[in-house]
Predict the structure.
Amino acid sequence: MFGRRKKNDAGSASAPGAEPFVDSVEDEDDDVEAADTTADGPHDLADLDDDREAVAKTRLDLGSVLIPLPEGGQLQVEMSQAGSPQAVHIVTQFGRITIAAYAAPKSPGQWREVATDLATSLRNDKAETTVETGPWGRELLGVTANADLRFIGIDGYRWMVRCVLAGPSGAVGEGQPLVQLAHTILRQTVVDRGTDPHPVRTPLPVVLPQVLAEQLAAAAQQQAAAQQQAAAQQSAPQQAAQPQAAAPAVEPVAPQQDSTPQPTAAERDRAPRRGASGSAIQQLGG
């Protein structure tokens, strides 16, 4: 499957679904040893013999990246304030994995700059920060009050992949199942940079498959209906109460205007995130 083809070969339309593709992490040690000199992924879609439709059959097609899903993994879709998807998190029994692609120059080196900025941001937040060497070079570790984080970056041709691991204390240490699983997923990830111009460091567009988008819309409708029902239940006792009733009325609190500063990249990557209720994240079965 992972043969090479010319850069100007075009892929066909994407398939809507994806099946679990990642093998068990038990054999990861052999892969890591071989990857010390030549890591065999992520792959550029333009370099593959198979077209996009064939690649998407065994991966979750998110437009700019096609990611294999681990067995039992679930998805969290993070929406922007404008209502468009900006990140898709893979939630596993070991922790959370987030893979995204960014525009980059033709020459490598962007990840080194990004890692330096991330380290500075983490240290400014009083996080304990260390650097380890992984299959693709430097990997940044941060211990925060909410979660342990590991940042993995890989430079490609006009793209950069960033993988963020978030888990409980010790979950992102060297050799841990979450780290091994992330390395396996990254080796099988495919990047579709596209031909549109993007400023460097700009996230490449995330496009949800139709099935996933429909599930997300249904979940949003259910959440809105639940909020309306809760509001109705709160107002019903007030309307039915007699003058002699002594119980105080429940008064809903209006949301406060958010005056907090915008979070840094490291803060956005922290776990745990807010649940589906009261946030822009919708949890969907993988």
In short: DSSP finds six helices and twelve strands in the chain. Helices lie at 28-35, 52-56, 110-124, 177-187, 210-240, 265-268.
